[in-house]
Design a protein that fits this description.
Two copies of one chain form a homodimer.
Chain A (H helix, E strand, L loop, with lengths): L1 H18 L8 H11 L6 H12 L4 H23 L8 E2 L2 E2 L1 H5 L1 H20 L6 H12 L4 H10 L7 H26 L4 H28 L20 H5 L1 H18 L8 H10 L5
Antiparallel strand pairs in A: 1-2
Helix pairs in contact in A: 1-3, 1-4, 1-13, 2-6, 3-4, 3-9, 4-6, 4-7, 4-9, 7-9, 8-9, 9-10, 10-12, 12-13
Chain lengths: 288, 288
C-alpha cells in the first residue's frame, strides 16, 4: 500500500512537470501534437523509476525531474513513430486515436522527432553538476545499441519464426534499455558510486525483461480467442514474443526468475530499496 | 583559391571521421540505412563551418570533429524524414534514390531517428570540457524553436499564399538555425568570450538567410520553364519562397544585404576571419 502511495506521489509530480513543460518557439500545431501524445495518461513507469533511483542514491528528486520528463518524452516519441502506418499501423492507443490519425502523418513524424529533440534540450538545459553523464546514459539507451536496435530487429524480422536469441535482443532493446536508463541515470544524478550504479543497471535489465514477458503473456491471456492455448506455435502466430518461443508455462517461470534476480540486485541498497523491490514484485501481478 | 583549399581540407577530415564513425550495437540494416544517407557526397557546409569557427576562436578542430559530425548527422536525418512520402515525397536526392525508396519507409523513419539520436550520443561521449554547452547549442538549433519549427510551418502551410513573415520564419528555422549553430558551438568549444560567440551567431543567421534566398533563386533560375519570369506570383506558384514574396530582383538585393551584414559581423575577428568572409561572399555566386 505504501509503495502504491509513493508511486502515485512520483507520478503526480512528474505529471505536473510535463504539463507545465516550456515549449518555447514551437508552432502551435507542433506543440498541440506533442502534448497530445505526451499527456495521454500513461503509467509514467520510466520517469517514476528515475525519481525513485535518484532518491535511493540519496539525491534530490526535484532536480531529477527534467531527466524523468526526458524518459517520458522519449517513450512518447517512440510510440508515435511505432504507430505510424509504415510501422505498426495502429489507429488506437490507450483508448484514443493515435497521433497520426488526429494530426496526419507528416505532423506525427515531426511531433515524434520533436519529443526526442526536446527531451535532449530539456536535459541540456539542466544545471545539475552530473547532467552531462545522465544525459549520456539516457541517450545511449534510446540509441542504436538500445531502443532503436530493438525496433529495427522487430521491423526487419516481421513474420520470422520465433527465435529465442532474436526475441531476447528485441526485448533488450525495445523494453529493457529504456527501463534500465532511469536506474543508472537516477543513481548518477544522485552521485552514487559506480558499484551502485551497476547494481541499478542489473535491476533495470531484469525488470525490463520480466516486464516484457508479462506484457507478452497478458497479450495472449487478455485475448479470449487465444485463451488457454499454451503451445508456443499457437500463441500469437507470427509475433516475436517470449511465450511464442518457450510456451506459456516456461515464460511465467522466466518472468519470475528475472524478478528474483532484479530483487537480488538491490541487495547493496538494503532496506532503502523497499519501493523498487515492491515494484518489481508487482510486475508479476499487474494488469494490462 | 586559398579558401577553397581550406574548405576541402576541412571536408576531407570530416568525411574521414564520418566514414569511420563507430556505430556499436546497431543492427546491420540500420547501420546500412544510416550510412547510405550520411555518406552521400554532401557539401558538408554545416560541419566545415563548425571546424572553421572553432579554429577562428583559437580552438583545436580535431576535438571539434564529433560536433561537426553531429551537425551533418542531424542534417542527414532531417533530409531522410523530409523526403518521406508523408512529407515532400521525394524519390531522388543528389542523383540517388532517397532512403525510403531503397530501404522502405519503416527503416527510413528509424534511420532518421537513429541519426538524430546518434548525433547526440557522439557529442555526449566527448570529453571536451565545453561539450555540454556545445551540445546544447546544437540541439536547440535542431529543436522546436529552430529547425523543427521551420519544418512544421512548411508542412502546415502548404499551398498558402506567399507571406513574407511566414517565409522568414520558415527560412530561419529550416536553414538559418542549422547554419548558426556551427558558429556558436564551434566558438564555444574554442572557449571564445560571449561577445565573439554572439558575433558568430549574427554571421550564421545572415549567412543562413542569404543561403536560403540564393537557393530559392537557383530553384527558379535552374528551371528553364520558369526562366525570365520575375513577378512574384509567377515564381514557383504555391511554394513559400523569398522570390515568391518580393520578386527576383528584390530577392537578389536582399541576399546581398544579408551577406554584407554577415561579413560586417566578422569585424571583431579581424584578419583571421578571411575564410568565413570568403565563404559568405561565395554564397552569392554558388551553383546548385
Amino acid at each position: 500500500m505504501k509503495e502504491k502511495e509513493t508511486l502515485n506521489a512520483y507520478k503526480e509530480r512528474l505529471e505536473r512537470f510535463l504539463s507545465d513543460l516550456p515549449m518555447a518557439g514551437a508552432p502551435d500545431k507542433l506543440r498541440e501534437a506533442m502534448r497530445y501524445s505526451l499527456l495521454n495518461g500513461g503509467k509514467r513507469l520510466r520517469g517514476c523509476l528515475l525519481l525513485a533511483a535518484c532518491e535511493l542514491g540519496g539525491g534530490d528528486a526535484e532536480q531529477a525531474l527534467p531527466f524523468a520528463a526526458a524518459m517520458e518524452m522519449i517513450h512518447a516519441y517512440s510510440l508515435i513513430h511505432d504507430d505510424l502506418p509504415a510501422m505498426d499501423n495502429d489507429t488506437m492507443r490507450r483508448g484514443k486515436p493515435t497521433n497520426h490519425v488526429v494530426f496526419g502523418e507528416a505532423l506525427a513524424i515531426l511531433a515524434g522527432d520533436a519529443l526526442l529533440t526536446h527531451a535532449v534540450e530539456i536535459m541540456a538545459s539542466s544545471r545539475h553538476p552530473r547532467a552531462f553523464a545522465a544525459l549520456g546514459e539516457i541517450i545511449r539507451a534510446a540509441g542504436i545499441g538500445g531502443m532503436l536496435a530493438g525496433q529495427t530487429l522487430d521491423v526487419t524480422n516481421e513474420g520470422a519464426e520465433p527465435d529465442i536469441a532474436l526475441v531476447r535482443d528485441i526485448h533488450r532493446g525495445k523494453t529493457a534499455a529504456m527501463l534500465t536508463a532511469p536506474l543508472t541515470a537516477g543513481l548518477i544524478l544522485a552521485g552514487a558510486e559506480s558499484e551502485r550504479v551497476e547494481a541499478g543497471r542489473k535491476y533495470g535489465q531484469h525488470l525490463g525483461m520480466a516486464f516484457q514477458i508479462v506484457d507478452d503473456l497478458l497479450d495472449v491471456e487478455g485475448d479470449p480467442a487465444l485463451m488457454g492455448k499454451t503451445l508456443g506455435k499457437d500463441i500469437e502466430a507470427g509475433k516475436l514474443t517470449w511465450p511464442a518461443c518457450v510456451g506459456m508455462e516456461q515464460a511465467r517461470l522466466d518472468a519470475q526468475e528475472h524478478i528474483r534476480q532484479a530483487v537480488d540486485a538491490l541487495a547493496p541498497f538494503g532496506e532503502k530499496a523497499g519501493f523498487l523491490r515492491a515494484l518489481a514484485l508487482s510486475t508479476l501481478h499487474r494488469e494490462q
